[in-house]
Amino acid sequence: MPGKKIIIVGLSAIVLMFNLSWAEDGVEQKIEGFSLHGYDENGEKAWDVKGDTADMQGKDVVLTNVNANTYGEQEVNITANTGTLNQEKGDMVLEEDVVITNKTGERLMTDSIYWNRDKDLVSTKDDVVITDDGLTVTGTGMEAKPGLKSAQIKEDVTVMVDTEPDKNIEKFVTITSDGPVEIDQALFRATFDKNVVAVQLDRILKADRMEVYFTEAMDNITKLECIGNVVIEQGENRTYADRATYDAVTKKVTLSGRPKLIFMTEGENAFTASGN
User: Fold this and answer.
1) Rounded CA separation 211/177 (Å)
2) How much of the chain exceeds pLDDT 70, in percent?
3) 201-226 pLDDT, tens per residue?
4) What's the rounded Cα separation, in Å, for the pair 83 and 146?
5) How confident is the model at residue 227 (pLDDT cuts 50, 70, 90)?
6) Residue 4 has pLDDT above 50, yes or no
7) What is the Cα–Cα distance from 21 to 230, expressed in whole angstroms?
8) In whole angstroms, how far apart are CA 145 and each of 60, 116, 122, 127?
9) What is the spatial distance between Cα 74 and Cα 103, in angstroms, rounded to a whole number?
10) pLDDT tens-digit series, residues 124-148
11) Domain ranges (residues) in the chain
């Protein structure tokens, strides 16, 4: 990579010869205790990759029990049972029990990850689970920065938030959508698309699109912005609108765009209210 220095450490001089000249002869070599470090243009350590064993296969190094770290603003640890490192590009494919943990304790788990060092992007087509204090995200397919500050979950997304973690009775908000879902921790926001449904106890909120705003710790919801074909259900009662804003602090809902309310009485008749 431009502006990057790569140094192999912890190996004897002969290991440094496991390069193109050996690979061209069809020779594959297996070594114990592999460590690769990368430094930025200022000489600061940018990343490292370690493995219990390494098979040198041309430009690729196949590792077992991978343990990788990135440093600086996006400080994370990545572990996997196996991994393949491309020595020219610095890209990695990690497989089997892949876990990414950032410095705040947020964790991503999946079966495989492609780590593009040039774009500083990790991606997978497999199922993913992201956990943080009071927050769990599941889905299929993902692209994210290694620090997990910005992520897109592609399909079948479910987000579960514990809204009252310090109380004896836990109250969860569960949000599902067909996806994609964009999670931006810099803005403390998650944006859900397609068939979005939020459920808390007996309350159900549906919309075409939903923007969910969190506290700075990303452990509690402060506001929901619902856009398009909004439906609020509680028991037999229904509320319809083009747009709805739910303030999680005041517990109030503001409706706009042809709001219509239908309340069921204890009898067979319903009371209906509508407006513009």
Assistant:
1) 12
2) 79
3) 888 999 999 999 988 777 778 898 99
4) 16
5) very high
6) no
7) 64
8) 23, 10, 6, 17
9) 8
10) 999 999 988 778 899 999 998 766 6
11) 1-118, 120-276
Class of domain 1-118: mainly beta
Nearest to 110 by CA among 120, 121, 124, 92: 124
Separation of alpha carbons 36 and 210, rounded Å: 43
Q: CATH code for 120-276? A: 2.60.450.10
Question: Would you say the CATH fold of 120-276 matches that of 1-118?
Answer: yes
Residue type at 116 in one-letter notation = N
